[in-house]
Amino acid sequence: MADLKVEVFHSINEIKPEIWNRIVSGRGFQSHNWYQFGERAMADAKPTYLLAWEGDTPVAGAALFKVHNEPLPLPAIAREFMASIFKHRPLLICRSPLADTSALLLPGEPLRDVALVALAQAAREQFKKQKCSFLLFDYLLTEQLRYGWPKGFEPLTVSEPGTYMPMEWQTFEEYLESGNKKDRQHYKKSIKEAEENGLVLSKHRKVSEIDKALELIRNVSIWHGSAPNPWMRGLLENFSMVDGTWLELRKEGKLVGCGAVVRDNQFQLATALGLEDDVPGGYFYLLYAAMQEAFEHKIRLVRFGTGAYDVKRRLGFHLEDTNHAMVTMAAFNTRSSKR
User: Fold this and answer.
1) Residue 20 contacts residue 250 (beta carbons within 8 Å)
2) Around Cβ 211, how many Cβ atoms within 10 Å?
3) 126-145 pLDDT, tens per residue?
4) CATH fold for the domain made of 163-319
5) Residue 7 in contact with residue 49, Cβ under 8 Å?
């Protein structure tokens, strides 16, 4: 069995890009540049990086973030209660920043389980050292739950699954033609409705009206009953650090809709969707614009996040199998246990 050495770092800038990207092996939202962006956007979440070496060769890695303000899918009063706990005993989460993707970067067999044990044990040491409440490896595939995890980790299924679509077509027009007549008519109807409503779509590399955009994004969170993302302002303020397109919908010059399309290693994610209360055609105008971006940038796989499943199935998206996690928790000392 291979004997792996694990090194610990506290910024992605302490790791050479060629070393980190070798471990990443082209996986989406895992590049060295993406984590530079993530550290800036999530400035209040202290990062820890683990690299596993077999001799002089890096073979596996993991990124952990110390999170005090996780937007849990709970009622507001329950989120407030948990926030009071996390304020003193935060979470340590293995997750790619702002991408709803695991940051556990394992090799294939035969090193896979050896690397997993080495990284999980090193993560648990950091978990204890940083005095966190829970150590969470989330956004795992069902298959990954069956890997050789060390004792003390328990599986659970969390939140709603995201959505994805492999890009099997060369052009947006070819994609539309692959659907049925009803789908093509829906596209034309949605664009016509938006344009007749006076909506003007534009694309940008930076976000200009950040406060207004955050207001629109909060609207969508409220409609879906989801907790607001505490790092959304950081994402918008640092948007130009990544390969991305900022979509804006304006009516008579006023910003009434928005969305962020971000790309990494030929993977694309649509996020930060925002809308005014009544913008006929605006939702689909943004979705189709995000799809067109994928074709223009030769994307391999598109992800559209959670919710609105009927709409996304119509567009050709599938449910991700990544709403699973492995977790271990700290031993909390109570007054009774001290007696």
Assistant:
1) no
2) 8
3) 999 999 999 999 999 999 99
4) Aminopeptidase (3.40.630)
5) no
Residues found in the chain: 339
Residue 228 has what DSSP assignment? P
Structure tokens given for 122: 């090193």
DSSP structure class, residue 150: P
Contact between residue 17 and residue 36 where contact means Cβ atoms under 8 Å apart: no
Q: Is the peptide bond prior to 110 cis by the omega test (within 30 degrees of 0)?
A: yes
CA distances 302 to 33, 210, 220, 320, Å, are 19, 25, 21, 11
Which ranges constitute the DSSP H helices of 153-244? 172-178, 181-196, 210-224, 232-237
Q: 5-161+322-338, what's its fold?
A: Aminopeptidase (3.40.630)
Burial readout 234-255 (b: 16 or more C-beta within 10 A, e: otherwise): bbbebbeebbbbbbbbebeeeb
Residue 73 confidence (pLDDT): 67
Same fold flag, 5-161+322-338 and 163-319: yes
| H/E run at residue 244 | strand 243-251
Section 162-182 average pLDDT: 94
In contact, 97 and 264? CB cutoff 8 Å = no
Using CA atoms, how far apart are residues 176 and 171, in angstroms rounded to an integer?
9
Residue type, 205: R
Domain boundaries, the chain: 5-161+322-338, 163-319
Rounded CA gap, 105 and 51, in Å? 9
pLDDT digits (tens, 9 = 90+) for 272-325: 999 999 899 999 999 999 999 999 999 999 999 888 888 899 889 999 999 999
* Poorest-pLDDT segment among 13-17, 198-202, 335-339: 335-339
CA distance 259 to 183: 22
Q: What is the DSSP string of 26-58?
A: T-TT-SHHHHHHHHHHTTTSEEEEEEEEETTEE
Contact by Cβ (8 Å): 207, 247: no
Q: What is the pLDDT of residue 335?
A: 39
Residue with structure tokens 């001290």? 338
Nearest Cα residue to 89 out of 120, 74, 68, 69: 68
